[in-house]
Structures are given as C-alpha cells and as structure tokens.
Amino acid sequence: MAATRPRKPKPALTHLDAQGRPAMVDVSAKAVTARSASAVCAVRFPAEVAAQLRASGLRSAKGGIVETAVIAGTLAVKRTHELIPFCHPLPIDGVRIDIDWRGERELRIACAVKTTHRTGVEMEALTGATVAALTVYDMCKALSHAISIGPARLAAKRGGKRDVGCAP
C-alpha cells in the first residue's frame, strides 16, 4: 500500500471575513520582519515611435520620460494604500525603479520595494511598476496611441510566510 502524503490546505482568499464580506487583514499578531518585493511591467511601442524615442534619448516635449516615470512610480509606491482599498499603509524603507530598453521596441520597468513591517510590499511594487508604465504612456501618447502596457507581474517577494521567485 502506498504511503499517503499529508494534504496541503487549499489557498483561501484573505480579504474576506467568515461571512464572506470584504475585510482588511488583521496583521497585528504577525512579527515585524524585513520584507521586499519586485515587479516588472513592459511598455511596447510601434517601431517608428521606438526609433523616435531612441533618437531623442527618451526625451519628449514634456521632459525626460524615464526621470518622470521614476518619480511617478516612487510616489505611487508611497500611496498604494490610498489606491488599493485593503492595503495597509506601510513605512517604505526603499524604492528602486529601473527603466531600460529590452529589444528594439520595448521598455522594461522594474520596481523593487523594501520595508520592515508585519506585511509585505507586493502591491507597492506592482503599483510602482504600473504607474511608471502609465507615465511613460502619458509622456509618449502624442506620438501614437498604439503603445501597449503589460503584462505587469510580481517578479519576487521575500519575507512573511514564503518567498516567491527568489533564488535560494
């Protein structure tokens, strides 16, 4: 007879109370630990727009595209709790947003966030990356409305119950 493995509990939604109503997670019993997360988002341009942006050094009539997107993404990280209803306001220890060409027609935006708290910063990293991408779109939309954003995804998180996407 084969040995049976213990079953893992099924994942459950954490933002619902026992009656199925929306609720903010109570993190008061969790330990304060170092937490970090990183997210990425892409912005794709039509070939002629990408060529024009490369020729201008990613500058537009509105100013430096990368610089403006980094500032917007950083502000978004710090205000995530104001945008996403059940996010906790967190002390942000660090934010790094990197924007660089990936191939001929795509900008890759990476946002890394750190905190020391009872809950993680995945939503902050995702918000920073996507708002930076939206800012790039806003800065470039005069050139084309065929610019696309996404996908946005969590690249890694550390701290809390489990690490995701992190090398051992």
How would you characterize this protein structure?
- The protein is an alpha+beta fold and 168 residues long.
- It is built from four helices and six strands, in the order βαββααββαβ.
- The chain has helices spanning 47-55, 65-78, 80-83, 122-140; strands at 33-44, 59-60, 63-64, 94-101, 106-117, 148-158.
- It has a four-stranded antiparallel sheet with strand order 4-5-1-6, with helices on one face. The chain has a two-stranded antiparallel sheet with strand order 2-3.
- Helix 2 packs antiparallel against helix 4.
- The radius of gyration is 19 Å and the shape is elongated.
- The two termini are 35 Å apart.
- 31% of the residues are buried.
- The mean pLDDT is 91.
* Beta-strand residue percentage: 25-35%
Strand order of the largest sheet: 4-5-1-6
Can you tell me the residue ranges where pLDDT is under 50 for at least 5 consecutive residues? Answer: none
Number of helical stretches of at least 4 residues: 4
Shape: elongated
Helix proportion range:
25-40%
| Helix and strand element order | EHEEHHEEHE
Largest sheet entry? 4 strands, antiparallel
Q: How far is it from the N-terminal to the C-terminal residue, by CA?
A: 35 Å
Question: What's the overall average pLDDT, rounded?
Answer: 91
The class by helix and strand makeup works out as: alpha+beta
Number of strands: 6
Rg, nearest Å: 19 Å
